[in-house]
Amino acid sequence: MRLAHILKAMGHPTRLRILQRIAEGEFCVSDLERELEQSQPNISQHLAKLRDCGLIIPERRGGMTCYRLADERIAAVIHQARDVLGLALDKETVP
């Protein structure tokens, strides 16, 4: 089931952090590497999964690849899930 596949991808802690960061504005891999304090290969693997699910869109800019949400409603889904579950913004989720 496609929905379960997408929600599973969104549910990984690192991918959720990536989606929340990209929801704030477009980010390049090097920006995400610094923000999330993780290696470039690790970030790239997570970005590939999110891209394969259709959640983010890559855009080449010279030698860099930047990402934006495929649909702004993705951010709303994350916020609504947090509201429905009564979860505050977690420092571990978004540094």
Describe the overall structure:
With 95 residues, the protein is of the alpha+beta class. It has a single domain, classed as Winged helix-like DNA-binding domain superfamily/Winged helix DNA-binding domain (Arc Repressor Mutant, subunit A, Orthogonal Bundle). The protein has five helices and three strands; from the N terminus they run H-H-E-H-H-E-E-H. The longest helix has 13 residues, at 40-52.
Share in helix: 55-70%
CATH topology: Arc Repressor Mutant, subunit A
**What is the chain-wise order of helices and strands?**
HHEHHEEH
Count of extended strands: 3
Label the CATH architecture.
Orthogonal Bundle
CATH class: Mainly Alpha
Distance between the termini: 32 Å
Beta-strand fraction estimate? 5-15%
Task: Please count the helical segments.
Answer: 5
Number of domains: 1
Q: Which strand order spans the largest sheet, edge to edge or round the barrel?
A: 1-3-2
The overall pLDDT average reads 89
**Which blocks of ≥5 consecutive residues have pLDDT under 50?**
91-95
CATH homologous superfamily grouping: Winged helix-like DNA-binding domain superfamily/Winged helix DNA-binding domain
Class from secondary-structure proportions? alpha+beta
Largest sheet: 3 strands, antiparallel
Shape: globular
- CA radius of gyration is 13 Å
Quick recap:
It contains 5 helices and 3 strands, in the order H-H-E-H-H-E-E-H. With 95 residues, it is of the alpha+beta class. The chain has a 3-stranded antiparallel β-sheet.
